[in-house]
TrEMBL record:
Gene3D superfamilies to which the protein is assigned, alphabetical: P-loop containing nucleotide triphosphate hydrolases
Transmembrane segments: none
SMART domains documented for this protein: AAA
GO molecular function: ATP binding; ATP hydrolysis activity
Organism, as annotated: Oliverpabstia intestinalis
UniProt keyword list: ATP-binding, Nucleotide-binding, Transport
The protein, known as: ABC transporter ATP-binding protein
Keyword Flavoprotein: no
Domain ABC transporter span(s) in chain numbering: 2-227
Protein origin, superkingdom: Bacteria
Keyword set includes Nucleotide-binding: yes
Length: 282
């Protein structure tokens, strides 16, 4: 669906240098702190900014090679973008109907009703959550096969975030060959949604792993200096000094549980893994 190979972009000190793949039928998450480069990567993929090196292919083609029909296969939500506040929800509907031959008016109405989007109000009067939901509904109601969602849950409370993740799960269940690329700086949103995770830090991908593998095989080992000296370090990805000794990130927790039963093993949530990868010493 999407292939990003060695894409580079510099903004002064900041340097993006990324490769990433989104496979058909999978939800791929891009997680990283504020300023890590998520939006820059999305903008490069969508042709909204130029990049200095590398190659991007969507549906096997470059941006320029994509036909209008193929572009309709893409559903996009960009951070801080949307329709002007001086339109009402129902005006958006009219624009979409002109823009997309495959626009699904009935589904649009159904979703707006279900998610309590007032079509007769001006968008500038919408809450942050309403705007975010409207943006997602727009991306979902023209039979797009590939969704690219940059921080679609930004500014939403926990309940609204869960609601939005449910919408995405339903979208995938309708047609399993669809794909989603979704970014967030909130790892718990992605942990329960994605098949594949990329962690971006200061413009670089520091981890690419299947979500199930992270949950099954990753862990943080809490060891004393003495335990650390004696242990096999082959499967340690990163270490960090802690108040109790040393915290070590491993992707082979079973090995350490079997061979070092006295070591404290904290099963790695995505948050813990990210913290270790982006804040550790090695
Ligand atoms: N047009 C621009 N001109 C100069 N610097 C830019 C520009 N756009 C982005 N940057 C810089 O590039 C870096 C990455 O920004 P980007 O918006 O991609 O991060 P992000 O991961 O999306 O962050 P957030 O979660 O806060 O949205 C930042 O240091 C930012 O200041």
């Amino acid at each position: 669906m999407l292939e990003i190979k060695g894409v580079k972009k510099s903004y002064g000190e900041f340097q993006l240098d990324c490769s990433l793949n989104v496979e058909k039928g999978r939800i791929t998450g891009l997680v990283g702190e504020n300023g890590a480069g998520k939006s820059t990567l999305f903008k490069a993929v969508l042709g909204l900014i130029s990049y200095d090196a590398g190659e991007i292919k969507i549906l096997g083609k470059t941006q320029e090679e994509l036909s209008e029909k193929e572009k309709e296969e893409l559903g996009v939500v960009l951070a801080e973008a949307g329709f002007t506040g001086y339109l009402k929800g129902k005006d958006v509907e009219a624009v979409l109907a002109r823009l997309y031959p495959k626009f699904e008016a009935e589904k649009f109405h159904q979703m707006c009703e279900e998610y309590q989007i007032p079509l007769n109000k001006f968008i500038k009067e919408y809450s942050t959550g309403m705007k975010a939901k409207l943006n997602l509904i727009i991306a979902l109601t023209h039979q797009a096969e590939f969704l690219m969602l940059d921080e679609p849950t930004a500014g939403l409370d926990v309940g609204a975030r869960e609601g939005m993740l449910d919408i995405l799960r339903e979208y995938m269940e309708e047609k399993p060959e669809r794909s989603i690329l979704i970014s967030s700086h909130i790892s718990s949103d992605l942990e329960h949604l994605c098949d594949d995770i990329y962690v971006i830090h200061k413009g670089k991908i520091v981890l690419h792993e299947e979500m199930d593998t992270i949950l099954e095989k990753y862990a943080v080992l809490k060891v004393s200096e003495e335990q650390y000296r004696a242990m096999d370090k082959r499967y340690l990805l990163k270490e960090r000094k802690d108040f109790f000794g040393i915290a070590c990130l491993t992707n082979e927790k079973q090995y350490y549980m079997e061979n070092y039963p006295k070591i404290v093993v904290e099963s790695g949530s995505l948050d813990q893994v990210i913290l270790m990868l982006t804040g550790g010493e090695r």
